[in-house]
Amino acid sequence: MATCRIAVLPGDGIGQEVTPEAVRVLRAVGKGAGAGFEFEEALVGGAAIDATGVPLAPGALELCRQAHAILFGAVGGPKWEGVAHEARPERGLLALRKELDLYANLRPARCFPMLVDASPLKRAVVEGTDLMVIRELTGGLYFGEPRGVERFADGGARAVNTMAYTSREIERIARTGFEVARKRRRRLASVDKANVLVVSQLWREVVTRVAKEYPDVALEHVLVDNCAMALVQRPTQFDTLVTENTFGDILSDEAAILAGSMGMLPSASIGGAVGLYEPVHGTAPDIAGKGVANPIAAILSAAMLLRYSLGLEREADRVERAVERVLEQGHRTADIAAPGRRPVGTREMGDLIVREVEAQS
Ligand code: IPM
Ligand code: MG
C-alpha cells in the first residue's frame, strides 16, 4: 500500500513519553504489513507556547490537514497555568478539533479480565464492562457564544459560557451513536439533562427522531446525574453511550476507572477529513519525566488510528492482541501494578508490546 503520512503531536508532560512508544508500535506493524508510515512531528500545547508563543505552532494545522491521520499526546501543565485563557495549551487541541471538524469522539472503556483487580472498584462491579462513550466534540459549552468574563468597578465579576447545539449538530452525532451501536450490542444510551436544560430537550427530540432510522438499535434516554451513578454501580448495563461535549468529558474520565486506570483508555476523534487519536489521560505532571507512565492508552489509540483512518483492521487487531498478551504475561506499569510487584517503565512496556507485535507478523 502507499505511504501513510502520520502527523505526530506529542504535546506536554507524559505525552512526550507515551507518544514515541505508539510510534514504535506503528513502525513495527508497518514493517509486518508492508505498509510504509512516514512520521512528521509538530509542536502543540505548552511545548508550542515555549517555542513559538502560541499553543499550536505555525504550520502544525497544515501538517495535520495534509496527513492521513494524527497521533496526539496530551497538553497542559502547571507551568502554563498563569497563561491568559485564549493562549492556554488546551486551546491548541481545541483549535485542532474545531478546525478539522472532529465532532465525534470515541472512547472505548473495556475492563480487561487480567486487570479487574487494578480498578479501585469491586470485581463484581467492573467485571465484564465493555462500553463505548461517544462524546460530541465541537459544540456545547466548549465553543458556545457568547463567552467571556465581565469585570465590574466594584471588584465583582460575571463570567459566561454558553451551551448551544443546533439540530444538525445533534443529528450527526446521534447517527454516529447509532452506527457504532449497530456494530456492537445494538444498545444506545443517550445521556442528557432534559429535566432541566432546553438544549437537552432538543437533544432528546432529535435523537428520538434519528432513532426511527435504526429500528434494530434499542435506544434509552438517561439523565446525566443518574448515568454518573449507574456507571459505578452497574456499568455492565451499558453498551454504547452518546452525549454532548461536557457530559462526555466527565463521564469518560469516570469510565476510565472501570478499565482499571486512565493509562488504559484510548480515543479516536473523527468526522472530519483526517482523524486524531489520543490517550484520554492528560499530561500527568506528577509523574512526567520519570519514565513510568503507562503507554498502553497511546498504543491502543494507535490501534484505533489503524482501524478508523487507515482501514487496517487486521493490523489494529494485531496491536490490541499484543497489548493483551503482554498483560496476560503479567507485565504492569506502576498505575496498574499490584502492590509489592515490580512495575515496568514506559519504554520497557513499549519494548514488550513491539516484540509481541513482531512475533505475530
Ligand atoms: C479531554 C481533555 C480535554 C478536554 C482538555 C485537555 C482540553 O480533558 O480530552 O478529555 O476537556 O476535552
Ligand atoms: Mg477530559
Note the main attributes of this structure.
ten-stranded mixed β-sheet, two-stranded antiparallel ribbon, globular, Isopropylmalate Dehydrogenase, 2 domains, alpha/beta, 361 residues, binds magnesium ion, 12 strands, binds 3-isopropylmalic acid
- How would you describe the oligomerization state of the chains in this entry? single chain
Q: Helicity range of the residues?
A: 40-55%
Tell me what the CATH architecture of the largest domain is. 3-Layer(aba) Sandwich
State the helix count: 12
**What structural class do helix, strand and pairing data support?**
alpha/beta
Structural features, described:
- The chain is built from twelve helices and twelve strands.
- It is an alpha/beta fold and 361 residues long.
- It folds into two domains: 210 residues, 3-Layer(aba) Sandwich (Isopropylmalate Dehydrogenase), CATH 3.40.718.10; 140 residues, Isopropylmalate Dehydrogenase (3-Layer(aba) Sandwich), CATH 3.40.718.10.
- Strands 2-1-3-12-11-4-5-10-8-9 form a ten-stranded mixed sheet, sandwiched between helices. It has a two-stranded antiparallel sheet with strand order 6-7.
- Strand 11 and strand 12 form a beta hairpin.
- The mean pLDDT is 96.
- It binds 3-isopropylmalic acid and magnesium ion.
- Magnesium ion binds next to helix 9.
Question: How are the SSEs placed, and which strands pair?
Answer:
Blueprint lengths: L3 E8 L3 H19 L3 E5 L4 H7 L7 H7 L2 E6 L14 H11 L4 E7 L12 H4 L3 E7 L11 E4 L5 E4 L6 H17 L3 E6 L5 H14 L6 E6 H10 L6 E4 L1 H14 L9 E3 L4 E3 L18 H13 L4 H16 L17 H15 L1
Parallel strand pairs: 1-2, 1-3, 3-12, 5-10, 8-9, 8-10
Antiparallel strand pairs: 4-5, 4-11, 6-7, 11-12
Bound molecules: 3-isopropylmalic acid and magnesium ion.
Magnesium ion binds next to helix 9.
